Amino acid sequence: MNSLQDTIQLNNGVHMPRLGLGVFKVEDGEEVINSVKWAIEHGYKSIDTAAAYQNEEGVGQAIKESGVNREDIFVTSKLWNADQGYEETLEAFETSLNKLGLDYLDLYLIHWPVEGKYKDSWKAMEKLYNDGKIKAIGVSNFQVHHLEDLLQDAAVTPVINQIELHPKLTQEQVRSFCEKQGIAVEAWSPLMQGQILEEPVIKELAEKYNKTAAQIVIRWDLQIGIVTIPKSTKQHRIHQNADVFDFELTKEEVASISALNEDHRVGPDPDNFDF
Question: Which of 29, 92, 93, 124 sits between 20 and 30 A of 106, alpha carbons compared?
Answer without folding.
Answer: 29
